[in-house]
Sequence to fold (570 residues):
Amino acid sequence: MELTGAQLFVKALKEESVTTLFAYPGGQAIDLFHALYGEKDIDVILPRHEQGLVHAADGYARSTGKVGVCLVTSGPGATNLVTGIATANYDSVPLVCFTGQVPTNLIGHHAFQEVDIVSITRSISKYAVTVRKREDLAETISKAFSIATTGKPGVVVVDLPKDVQRAYGSDSYQKGITTEGYELNTCNMGQLHRALDLLNHAKKPVFLIGGGVNIADANQEMTKLAEMTGVPVVTTIMGKGAIPTTNSLYVGNIGIHGNYAANFAISHCDVLFSIGTRFNDRITAKVETFAANAKIIHIDIDAASIFRNIVVDVPIIADAKKAICALLEKAKPLRISEWTDQINHWKMEYPIEIKKTGLTPQMIIQSINELFRDAIVTTDVGQNQLWTTQFLEIDGHKKMLTSGGLGTMGYGFPAAIGAKLGNPHKDVIVISGDGGMQMNIQEMATAIVYELPIIICILNNGYLGNVRQWQEMFYDKRYSSTCMRYRKNCDTDCNISNHCCPDYTPNFIALAKSYGAKGICVRDAEDIKTALLSAKQNTKTPTVIEFIIDSKINVMPIVPPGNSLNEMIL
Fold:
C-alpha cells in the first residue's frame, strides 16, 4: 500500500509512540495537518506562538522523559523555533522538530517563506537534515528519534519540503534505525578504578553533580552512592535534585550565586569527583583557581565536554547512571568526619537567607515547599530563577525545570504548559519575573483552552532584576533600560525613586482575567499561603498570583566578575 509523505509522517509518529504534538500550521505544512485531521491517537496542541510551542515541547520532554515533538511551517514558523532549539539542546533535552519547507525545485530561489533552517540550526542542534526524496522519509524520521535519544540527548531538526509531503511511496516504517557515531562506548573500568582509588585516599572529597545525573534518571543511585561513601554533594543549578535537597550530605549549589559552604567546599577539597557537568563559567568563576588543591575526576557522556574548560586528572566518558552503578559495586565508606564537620560549620555559619522585612522571595518559595509535595516547578530566567534554585526543596516527588545553558527568558510559562499536559495529575507551578512573564504571556490562551490549572507566581519587582542588580553593584547604579515602569516622560537617569513611579504596565491581574484566568495580587507576607491554597483549589483555569516584592532585593551571595569562588560578596 502506498501513502503520501504526509500520511507516512502520521504513521511514523504513531510508531514512535508520540501522543502529544505541539504544532502551528502554515502553507508549507498544511498537507501534514491535513493528514493529522481527525487523528484520535495524537493530541495536536495549538499554542499561540512557535517559541511558546517549542518551549512547551521542551517542558513536556523534561517532565515526562519522552521525546518532545514539534511541527511548524517554513520561513518564520521555522525561525521562531530557533531560541527554543538552542535552549533545549544546551540542556540535553530530546526534541524532534519538523519544519515545513518549500518544494525542492524552489529551494535556493528565495521563494516565499523559504529559509535554510538546516544551516541556521546546525550549530545549535544535535542533527539537522532536509528530506529531499520521498523514499528517504521513513528512514530519516526513524533516525531522528534515535539520534535525539541516543547517547547525550539533544534536538533533531527534520525539514520536509512540500513535494515530499505530497509524493506517494511505500507505507513501510521501521522504528529504531540508528546512525553510526551516536552510540556510546561502555565505561572504561580501568579509569573508574583510578577514580575510586583517588576517592578512597581522599581526606576532603566532594561530589560535584551536574544535570547529566538528572537526565540519566540516576537520582536514586547517586543518593545511594553519597550515603554509602559519606561524601558531601555539591550541585550545579541543573544538577539540583540529584540527591534530595533535605539530605544531610547535600551542601548546596556551586557557582556565581552558589552558597558559601558549597563554594568553599570546592575551593578546599582535595578530590573533586564530578559527574555530568560541563564546568561552564557560571560554576567555575576564575578558572585558574577552581578546585586548585584537588585532583579532579570528570565523568561525562560527551567526550567534547571533558578538558574543554577544566584540566582533569581522570577523564571518563560514560553515561552517568551506568558509571554510578559501577561505582556502587566497589565504593566503601570513607573516614572524613573532620571534613564533613567543617562543611556543616560553613553551612550553619553562612546560610542563604534574605534578611529583609516584608514579602520576600524566600517566604514565597518556602511556602511552596510546605504546601506542594508532588509538583513540577518551572522557572523563568533572572533573579526569580536564582532564588528558586536557592530555596526550592527537591526530592523524588518534586522536580524543577529551568533553562540552564542558554538562560532563556520566556521559558518558564510555556514549559509549564508542556509539563502539565504531560503530567495532568501533578501540580505545576511557574515562578517567573515580571519581565520574563511578558515574553510569552500570549500562551495564557493556550492554558485556558486546554483547561490547564497552572499556578503562575510572578515575582514583580518592577525591574529586569538580575541586570539591575549588576548595574547597582558593578556599574555605578546606572540603571540603563531595566525599569519596567519607564514611561516616555521619565528621567533617563532615574535612580529607583519608587514614590513617583508610574503604574506598572500591564496590570497582570486584569490581563489574567481578560483571558479567563484567575488573578490574585499579594503584597503582604501573611497572604502568601492563602493565595497559594486558593490557586490550588482552582482546577479548571490558570491562576496568576502577582507578588509585589521590593525592587532592591538582590540575589546573594555573588562572586564578582574575575573573582575566585571563595571570594564572595555575602
Observations:
- The chain has 23 helices and 20 strands.
- The mean pLDDT is 95.
- Residues 65 and 330 are 29 Å apart (CA to CA).
- The two ends are 69 Å apart (CA to CA).
